[in-house]
Design goal:
- The protein has 345 residues and is an alpha/beta fold.
- It contains 10 helices and 18 strands.
- The chain is elongated.
- It starts with 7 loop residues before the first helix and ends in an 11-residue tail after the last strand.
């Protein structure tokens, strides 16, 4: 059951806010029912979104999205823009009967460990679990995994009913509502948006050891689109490698949103989720793309390709440069992050 008129624009905004993949606005501030709103209303700008309960009077330059219901506890339903969005725990989402759009949060260490187990399974076997591939489910704060150790001002702070201000609904405590203006101007590690679910030392250790988690989130989306569970398709890096010397050489992992190599019975496709473009690649081009994505720079990729393809380094570099220019693929990121693992929030 939904409340209010359907508003496609606001519905899209809510989806972007939940996942953290903002395309229609800069920042989104959610004020839970009963939360002090005035400080938040004064801190945001015309490029931002303010989500407030429908019975709250507010004056702000930001775009206001009004809602009914709640969105903090498992089973809460947010009625917004003519839609009803339910909140579920990641660890139990696969066992809940879904009646409509559902957001998943980790909420606690059990949810976090369940997510890591699903990611490790996909990495080793190519099997993606239903919470990550079901189109009715959306992982909250998914954007954090694209670059968790990058510093940026919080993009989706959450003002709770008791006045606490957190870096997202499941993030680190940053102060109280009156601190919002300062918080929005202060860069912080992006992983702090998840810092409320587990000890910071454990969280940063897990993220640093799995620099491919952002890649996993996007690969799971692709798996859902392609229906991998019912096919023999395979995604590079998840139960299958396009490189015969996988694990050697370049020291990198593919960037989270780079195009994917997908093995099919008829050959290998390059699939770009950003553009929805698909193209079949010759075998050598497949290895060029894979070498580039598995290396931290073009030099390392060319050295690796020269060794495996018996090319000169100069010829290998030309192939890598052409792949960057024509196919939109890039060198990867370091397989482990140089952050001081265990640093607190």
């Amino acid at each position: 059951m939904t409340r209010g008129a359907v508003d496609a624009h606001d519905a899209r905004i809510v989806g972007e806010w939940i996942t953290g993949r903002h395309a229609s606005f800069r920042r989104a501030v959610f004020c839970a029912p009963g939360a002090p709103v005035d400080a938040a209303a004064a801190a945001v700008t015309v490029d931002d979104i303010l989500l407030v309960a429908s019975d709250v009077a507010v004056e702000t330059p930001a775009h206001v999205v009004r809602f009914d219901g709640a969105f903090d506890e498992v089973g809460d339903v947010l009625h917004v823009a003519g839609h009803a969005v339910e909140l579920q725990h990641y660890a139990s989402a696969a066992y809940v009967e879904l009646v409509g759009p559902t957001a998943m949060r980790f909420l606690d260490a059990d949810g976090w460990r369940a997510f890591l187990a699903d990611a490790d399974l996909a990495r080793a076997s190519g099997v993606f679990t239903s919470p990550m591939t079901d189109p009715r489910l959306r992982l909250a704060d998914a954007d954090v995994f694209d670059d968790p150790f990058a510093a940026a001002a919080p993009r989706a702070p959450h003002v709770h009913a008791d006045g606490r201000l957190t870096a997202g609904a499941q993030g680190a405590v940053l102060g109280v509502a009156d601190d919002l203006a300062n918080v929005l101007a202060t860069p912080r590690p992006r992983w702090e948006a998840l810092a409320g679910i587990a000890a910071p030392a454990d969280l940063t250790r897990d993220l640093s050891a799995r620099r491919w988690l952002g890649r996993f989130v996007h690969a799971a989306e692709l798996a859902g689109i392609l229906g991998l569970a019912a096919s023999d398709l395979r995604i590079d890096g998840f139960g299958w490698s396009a490189l015969s010397d996988a694990g050697e050489g370049g020291g990198g992992v593919a960037r989270a949103d780079d195009p994917f190599l997908v093995r099919t019975p008829d050959g290998v496709l390059l699939v770009d989720l950003r553009t929805r473009r698909r193209q079949r690649l010759p075998e050598r081009t497949v290895r060029v793309v894979a070498s580039l994505q598995a290396s931290t720079d073009v030099t390392a990729a060319a050295d690796r390709l020269a060794r495996t393809e018996r090319l000169t380094v100069e010829a290998a570099r030309v192939l890598c440069t052409e792949a960057e220019r024509l196919l939109g693929v890039r060198p990867g990121v370091p397989a482990t992050d140089p952050v001081a693992v265990g640093a607190g929030a």
